[in-house]
Amino acid sequence: MMPTARKPRQILALFLLNHSRLVPMATLIEELWDGRAPKTARAAVQIYVAQLRKKFAEVTGQSMDTVGSQMLRTARNGYEFLAELTQFDLRAFRQLERAGAAAMADGDLVTAAQDFHDALSLWRGPALADLEPGPSIRAEVAGLEQSRVTMLEHRIELELRLGRHREVLGELTNLVARDRFHEDLHAQYIIALYRSGYRARALEAFHRLRKDMLDEFGLEPSPRLHRYYQAVLTSNPVLDEMPVLPLPAEPPARTP
């Protein structure tokens, strides 16, 4: 039932991103006009919301009164989107994120890794890629994307701690190719290569990262990456068991 006009699509997307939370009128106006709102902005938003309510009524068979009181409600100079959605990937992602974090805190690494895997599998590309966003949606999407990246790092770290370094090698190869300057992913990649018996490739991965960083920014990789490189060079046995990255509530990972 996604509307085709740009502004109603933006409003619906903002309601979905803030499901069950108040979206102030000022936020909606800023999203639609980005600081250049006309005098008729408030009335225009009210019209777009009325159009969405009509769509919901058509799709659900509910009356407009029911939609206005139970699904898309006016509240405190804004709106609350309360519709019960049978399939809502964002809600499922957040639920799995919380479940994985709880399992991780309990030391159940297998369950945490599975919860994070299931959550990440809900992503089918960039969030709201088919929408032209305003400032509010851009901020929401940036936060959501950061949650995804953090969860990905945690899931890979859990896999490494569970001895699944060979299983994540292909994924890490693709990730570091797409993000040539992400030092944490490179650290995980180097250790996964080393533990899988590819010491020369692990050293090559460090040299490639170092060259890219020097060419692009004139910067060296972090001291931690240099210590990993030296440990791989000398086949330091510490690399076989140590954490690569810290997980939440842990101190920084010890390096050789």
Topology (elements, then pairings):
Layout: H1 6-17, E1 22-24, H2 25-33, H3 41-60, H4 64-71, E2 72-74, E3 78-81, H5 89-105, H6 109-120, H7 135-161, H8 165-178, H9 183-195, H10 199-217, H11 223-233
Helix pairs in contact: 1-3, 3-4, 5-6, 6-7, 7-9, 8-9, 9-10, 9-11, 10-11
Report on this structure.
This protein is mainly alpha-helical. It folds into three domains: 6-81, Winged helix-like DNA-binding domain superfamily/Winged helix DNA-binding domain (Arc Repressor Mutant, subunit A); 88-162; 164-256, Tetratricopeptide repeat domain (Serine Threonine Protein Phosphatase 5, Tetratricopeptide repeat, Alpha Horseshoe). 63% of the residues lie in helices and 4% in strands. A hairpin with a 3-residue loop joins β2 and β3 (78-81). It is elongated and about 70 Å long. The model has no long low-confidence stretch (mean pLDDT 92).
Assign the CATH architecture of the largest domain.
Alpha Horseshoe
CATH topology of the largest domain: Serine Threonine Protein Phosphatase 5, Tetratricopeptide repeat
Continuous helix count: 11
- Distance between the amino and carboxyl termini: 55 Å
Percent range of helical residues: 55-70%
Estimated share of beta-strand residues: under 5%
Please identify which CATH superfamily of the largest domain we are dealing with.
Answer: Tetratricopeptide repeat domain
